[in-house]
Design a protein that fits this description.
The complex is a heterodimer.
Chain A: E1 2-7, E2 13-18, E3 35-40, E4 45-50, E5 53-55, E6 58-61, E7 67-71, E8 74-80, H1 82-103, H2 109-121, E9 130-137, E10 143-148, E11 154-157, E12 159-163, H3 166-176, H4 192-209, E13 216-223, E14 226-233
Antiparallel strand pairs in A: 1-2, 3-4, 3-12, 4-13, 5-6, 7-8, 8-9, 9-10, 10-11, 13-14
Helix pairs in contact in A: 3-4
Chain B: H1 2-6, H2 9-19, H3 51-58, E1 69-70, E2 73-79, E3 82-87, E4 91-93, E5 96-99, E6 105-109, E7 112-115, H4 120-141, H5 147-160, E8 169-176, E9 179-186, E10 191-193, E11 196-200, H6 203-213, H7 220-237, E12 244-251, E13 254-262, H8 263-274
Classes of the chains: A alpha+beta, B alpha+beta.
């Protein structure tokens, strides 16, 4: 046994013992941060994400949005490991094109969600480290949000937050959109303007308390007229 | 097709003959991301790594935390008027509650139901595949598949991936020519038939309730109440179960959805009766 001593942070001596071979392992994953949010309304859907790309203590980019447009009525938000986000969106695009050429129609939101579930499960034993949320309009023109876990379990929701600040945002959305834990309030349906304002407020709160969220907010609003994008600045620190 | 050529699909199938010994069709490692199609789906495996330990080891790296949706209580029992199926609706990912209103019963056809407990993705994927196989059976044989055969299909799918870390505890309930059927299938390939099962991390609490209240000749209302109580008390004591009770009744002419009630309201009703 070899032991060596060195000074630790508090000035006390630390002892290191070498007790045998140590396994060094390469991790295929890395966490690049970012938060994604989607809200479904009566005839619209909103997908929003911050634009910060970080790794460990560094910020790689302040302008890397996590919303990707799939069709005229569907947008996907992907956060987690950026490498897997890029590959996954490339695969989804390829599958969408194949479907369009074989079936002569665009995939609906529900079909894209079901397809993504099987794509993700195809890597059940070596998952894509991506938290996905799809937002769009269904065949009847109503807003739809589908949320996924990294291996493909999914369900349709009215609103969902995913990514690094999801645990902070989801309770706020539960309260403001789902009217949970409130008594004596009228359940008014969400208008588009109110929803956009709520999304901005919610991300400002997330940027205050989550180190991986900030820089700017990209909002995609999906209606039957098409997809409109807005960019709002957030805290850069 | 130009896209398939570009994605390297045809090149892979030549390579495959050299990699795989003849006759083996197990999942293999693929560098190819674009192997999709209508043929038998294969799952990608990292070569040289034990699949079930691989995910756990990745979670120890700083910052990386791949949590999969988990956790449940489900129960089902046969009685003189058919089969009652009751499930909770919570999905947790590590310590975070991913959702409180997941649907854990898959309606395979009007005479077959499957429940899901364990890993949400595993249950959703394999039971959707089972629904596809049941539909193909119906189209090929002009008769609906029996409950025994459907549960056998599912257990064989599980046996194909035994030891690789899948997590699924499912009950296949239905009504076929033999009458009401209830089978328990799990990720080890276990397949059992009995008149009462409960699965999931809250199953022990549910067993306590349904074992003490069960009678073969219950009325329909008594059976509904027993199913509701079983799930409610399990969600009360198990942290990973909660949400709403989704209850189905499998009858001779098909299943009906009985109720969808919030457990926090139900537990107050039942606790009043306790005092």
């Amino acid at each position: 046994m070899i032991s060596s001593q060195s000074f630790g942070e508090s000035g006390k001596m630390k002892e290191y013992h070498y007790s045998g071979p140590v396994e060094q392992r390469f991790s295929p994953y890395s966490f690049n941060g970012g938060t994604v949010l989607a809200v479904a309304g009566e005839d619209f859907a909103i997908v929003a994400s911050d634009t910060r790309l970080s790794e460990g203590y560094s910020i790689h980019s302040r302008d890397s949005p996590k919303c990707y447009k799939l069709t005229d009525t569907t947008v996907i938000g992907c956060s987690g490991f950026h490498g897997d986000c890029l590959t996954l969106t490339k695969i989804i695009d390829a599958r969408l094109k194949t479907y369009k050429h074989s079936n002569n129609k665009t995939m609906t939101s529900g079909a894209i969600a079901a397809m993504l579930s099987t794509i993700l499960y195809g890597r059940r034993f070596f998952p894509y480290y991506v938290y996905n949320i799809i937002g769009g309009l269904d065949e009847h023109g109503k807003g739809a949000v589908y949320s996924f876990d990294p291996v493909g379990s999914y369900q349709r929701d009215t609103y969902k937050a995913g990514g690094s600040a999801s645990a902070m945002l989801q309770p706020l959305l539960d309260n403001q959109i789902g009217f949970k834990n409130m008594e004596g309030v009228e359940h008014v349906p969400l208008t588009q303007d109110k929803a956009v304002q709520l999304v901005k407020d919610v991300f400002i709160s997330a940027a205050e308390r989550d180190v991986y969220t900030g820089d700017a907010l990209r909002i995609c609003i999906i209606t039957k007229e098409g997809i409109k994008e807005q960019t709002i600045p957030l805290r850069k620190d | 097709m130009a896209l398939l050529d570009v994605s390297g699909f045809s090149r892979y199938s030549e390579l495959r003959g050299q990699i795989l010994p003849a006759g083996r069709t197990h999942p293999v490692d693929r560098t190819n991301h674009y192997s999709f199609g209508t043929k038998t789906p294969e799952l990608a495996l990292p070569l040289g790594v034990d699949p079930s330990a691989f995910l756990k080891s990745c979670n120890q790296e700083a910052g990386v935390s791949i949590d999969l949706n988990h956790g449940t209580t489900t129960l089902a029992f046969k009685f003189q008027h058919g089969v009652i199926v009751a499930v909770d609706s919570r999905a947790s990912a590590g310590r975070y509650l991913a959702s409180n209103d997941v649907n854990k019963v898959i309606e395979i056809n009007p005479y077959l139901l499957g429940t899901m407990s364990g890993s949400a993705a595993d249950c959703q994927y394999w039971e959707r595949l089972l629904a596809k196989e049941c539909r193909l059976y119906r189209l090929r044989n002009k008769n609906r598949i029996s409950v025994a055969a459907a549960s056998k299909l599912l257990s064989n799918m599980m046996l194909g991936y035994r030891g690789m870390g899948l997590s699924m505890g499912s009950m296949i309930c239905g009504w076929d020519k033999e009458g009401p059927g209830l089978y328990y299938v799990d990720d080890n390939g276990t397949r059992l038939s009995a008149s009462m099962f409960s699965t999931g991390c809250g199953s022990m609490y549910a067993y306590g309730i349904i074992d003490s209240g069960y009678k073969e000749d219950m009325t329909v209302e008594e059976a509904y109440e027993l199913g509701r109580r079983g799930i409610t008390h399990a969600t009360h004591r198990d942290a990973y179960s909660g949400g709403v009770v989704n209850m189905y009744h499998m009858r001779e002419d098909g299943w009906i959805k009985v109720c969808k009630e919030d457990v926090s309201e139900l537990i107050h009703r039942y606790r009043k009766g306790m005092f």
